[in-house]
Design a protein that fits this description.
Layout lengths: L15 H6 L8 H53 L3 H58 L1
Helix pairs in contact: 2-3
């Protein structure tokens, strides 16, 4: 079978230390990890603060819009009741309907703009942090 019939294990002369010497475990810098986590938390806090402030602004603005609508309704209601003829009452009601429609469209656009701006601001803060993370990882790789 094997020349003289004796079996020789091929791994008896193999030096495993040479094989494992090439494996280098990455060194984790705890300070770097803590700083990265702090920056991530700061970015999330900034995005959340933006969202909360926007919700407060939108709620305040919607309250103002409802108050103004109620004031207009009261004013136009008084004008309609004070009108002398049916034609005058109809004209006042049509004017009120037109003004209400235009105001509703303008208010809707304003609220949509507020929502859009808030979303852009929140994502900008997060995107900036993602960009920083990629730069930090590139710099860490370049050091090695």
């Amino acid at each position: 079978m094997y020349g003289n019939g004796a079996f020789k294990n091929p791994f008896t002369d193999f030096d495993f230390t040479k094989l494992t010497a090439d494996f280098k475990m990455p060194v984790v810098n705890v300070e770097t990890m803590v700083e990265a986590t702090r920056k991530n938390f700061a970015a999330m806090t900034s995005a959340n603060t933006t969202a909360v402030e926007t919700i407060k602004t939108i709620a305040q603005r919607q309250g103002d819009m409802v108050r103004a609508a109620m004031e207009d309704l009261s004013k136009y209601g008084s004008e309609v009741l004070a009108a002398a003829t049916f034609e005058e009452k109809a004209i006042k009601q049509i004017d009120f309907a037109k003004k209400s429609y235009e105001t509703a469209i303008a208010n809707g656009k304003e609220l949509a703009d507020l929502y859009g701006r808030a979303q852009s601001d929140a994502f900008a803060a997060l995107s900036a942090r993602v960009s920083e993370i990629t730069d930090e990882v590139k710099a860490a790789i370049a050091k090695k």
